[in-house]
Amino acid sequence: MTKINVNKDTCIGCGTCVAIASNTFDMNSENKAEVKKVDGDDKETIKTAAESCPVNAISIEEDK
Ligand code: F3S
Fold it and tell me: Probe ligand 1: pick from 55, 56, 59, 60, max atoms within 8 Å of CB?
């Protein structure tokens, strides 16, 4: 099971992750991203979203 973590202290609420992987990330009421569904989008999309975060707030932990 893959784990996705959003560091809410680091997140500046830019929303890129939500724009790219809208089935996985959502903005909460504090304008920070949170994971709504770990497997909401395919792996590549989630990876792209994480890599697109300007402050690298998203980490993906894959156990194989
Ligand atoms: Fe926050 Fe980065 Fe998403 S700043 S809203 S985690 S793209």
Answer: 55
Q: Which of 5, 8, 12, 48 to mutate to test the pocket of ligand 1 (most atoms within 8 A of CB)?
A: 12
Cβ(25)–Cβ(63) under 8 Å?
no
Burial zone of 7 (CB within 10 Å; 0-12 exposed, 13-18 middle, 19+ buried): middle
Q: Per-residue pLDDT tens for 8-44? A: 999 999 999 999 999 999 999 999 999 999 999 999 9
Distance of alpha carbon 20 from alpha carbon 33, whole angstroms? 12
Task: Give the separation between CA 11 and CA 55, rounded to whole angstroms.
Answer: 7
Q: Is the pTM of this model over 0.70?
A: yes
